[in-house]
Amino acid sequence: MTEAVVDDILIMLPPLLQTLEALSYVARYLNPPDFDRVMADIGDPEQALQTARTHLTSWPADFAHIRIAFDTAADAALMSFAGLRAVQRGEGDLIDVFRALRQLPRALEALFPLAATLPPLSEFFLDPAVGNDQALRQLLAATSGKDAVFHDHNEIGNRGGFSLYVPEYYTADRAWPLVMALHGGSGNGRDFLWSWLRAARSMGAILVAPTAAGPTWALMGEDADTPNLVRILDLVRSRVAVDSARMLLTGMSDGGTFCYVSGLERHSPFTHLAPVAATFHPLMAQIADRDRLRGLPIQIVHGQLDWMFPVEIARHTQDALAKSGARIVYREIDDLSHCYPREVNVDLLRWLMS
């Protein structure tokens, strides 16, 4: 790597990662009444990123893939901030905020392949909860260069496909825990994969992020999604060694609600359920199979500030499922609105693995 390229990476990478972390902060703490305060909290990191880009030099062709990834991620981050700033100026609404934040996973997807060669990026794609785990870092360094993220008919706009993360240090000599993570309404698995990848990479779990067959999960009418989830699970299990006693079905919003719809079925293969920011109808507990519910580990995660599904729903759900015999862990987060709390993922994996 030439000295000029190294200098450019040192100029570009810190403000790029800081900008992405700022977008993650907005995505985590987004609450409509607090939008202006949250934006004030993060300052204006995109300005440093814009300045850094103006100082970049021409790169040799051998390093074009790194430059393309940096440019793609920076373009996505700056586009996201442009959308957020427009809403601050009164030129949009909450839907425009969500639309702007969709650029964040596109930036992460562009950068992740470089984690194998750039240690700061490898560190960026680890969960802070693992702290100074040198054994993990040695494993990642020893297996750098292995493909880890795969997409099966899961381009943005496609329905019914899935994205898959297999830890770089995966070996077939033991069975691995699996997480199937379901996106929220109108979302897709390719983007939602990045809500979970840090934790799966840090803890050693196979991660599957499917996309609903329709605009959202089959919460009413004919259920085309459960058979597709089983198909995807069977396909993944035919390729990697999965621990059949540690398979978590989790999801956000509509995806969390579908955890109940699908995961409470008698023949569901999943051993643990973890709906996040989900809604629940008491009839679900009444019509669910008694044998399936008895002793089933379910962890409910909900925010006190949830404006879409008020927290009282989650509290009633806890009571209904506990009375039906499920083993309930209830986690209520006081500063969480209707957002995905990425900080719970490592704890969910520890719960799954315990």
TrEMBL record:
InterPro entries registered for this protein in UniProt: AB_hydrolase_fold, Plant_Biomass_Hydrol_Est
Top-level taxon of origin: Bacteria
Keywords: Hydrolase, Signal
The name this protein goes by in its record: Phospholipase
